[in-house]
Design goal:
273 residues, 13 helices, 69% helix, globular, mainly alpha
């Protein structure tokens, strides 16, 4: 009698899951490369589309909020101020959206073959990470144009901020992806939610103007990330480590909820997707 191997997903993440993801690293690379090729297939400018969205948003915000509304920008040119925030916001929002749809977009693979399902959300974020580095070239160009020298020593914190943004989008995305498998309303609600979230994130305005509502910004994990990024790159103020710690706590809670929900529902993905 031949042996039958039954693969059952665990309800919690363990060291074995991390080892399994590492064992499938070639598949992760394939997913990232595939997503990049699909995203920019048959486009005239290719990966430069990664620049278009944050650049045009920067232009519109600079005209409306910087030019007409005279929004304060912590003593730096408003285009640099807003673009430095848009870089991290665009990475977070795009990653959150892509992760939430990662299972649905790969329905044919999920239902036919076994692999660590966490690879799909991680690959979705890694794809946006490539876009982040491409779009960063515009920030360097803006700083050169305005004669604003970056604080190179502060750049050492950027990988940490990217990692926090990665975990924030992963935690929220895993929760939404799990729900999206059963309830497709997520794809309609999420764009609206991200639009609202933009206004409680200090992207187009400095966090200092929030006043008595600063506690609302503080519980938003991207607030600490964006403020720390501006402080590190632009050198307008010292890095607010307390706010960054609050962001880490918020990310830890978000990641715990997301991973727990994902692992709890993972066994049903192939049945109800």
């Amino acid at each position: 009698m031949s042996k039958v191997t039954v693969i059952k997903p665990k309800k919690t993440v363990s060291i074995d899951d991390l080892k399994e993801i590492w064992a499938f690293k070639e598949l992760l690379y394939f997913f990232v490369w595939r997503d990049l090729k699909v995203r920019y297939k048959q486009t005239a400018v290719g990966v430069l589309w990664a620049i278009f969205q944050p650049f045009m948003a920067m232009v519109v915000f600079s005209v409306i909020f910087g030019g007409l509304a005279h929004m304060p920008s912590d003593g730096v040119p408003y285009p640099i101020f807003v673009y430095s925030g848009l870089l991290f916001w665009q990475f977070f929002s795009s990653s959150l959206s892509d992760v939430s749809n990662s299972l649905i977009a790969n329905q044919s693979i999920v239902t036919k073959v076994y692999f660590p399902r966490l690879l799909l959300p991680i690959a979705a974020i890694a794809t946006n990470l490539v876009d982040f580095f491409v779009a960063s070239a515009v920030l360097l160009g803006l700083m050169f144009y305005y004669g604003f020298l970056p604080h190179l020593t502060g750049l050492l914190i950027i990988p940490v901020l990217l990692f926090i943004s990665f975990l924030a989008s992963l935690g929220g995305g895993l929760f939404l992806a799990s729900i999206n498998v059963k309830y497709r309303d997520v794809r309609y609600v999420l764009p609206y939610f991200l639009q609202m979230l933009l206004f409680i994130t200090p992207v187009i305005y400095p966090a200092s103007i929030a006043g008595k509502y600063s506690w609302i910004l503080a519980i938003n994990p991207m607030t600490g990330v964006i403020k720390a990024a501006r402080a590190a790159i632009l050198g307008t103020e010292p890095v607010n480590w307390l706010l960054l710690e609050l962001s880490l706590i918020a990310v830890a809670v978000l990641l715990t909820i997301g991973v727990t929900t994902f692992k709890k529902m993972e066994r049903y993905f192939a049945d109800i997707i």
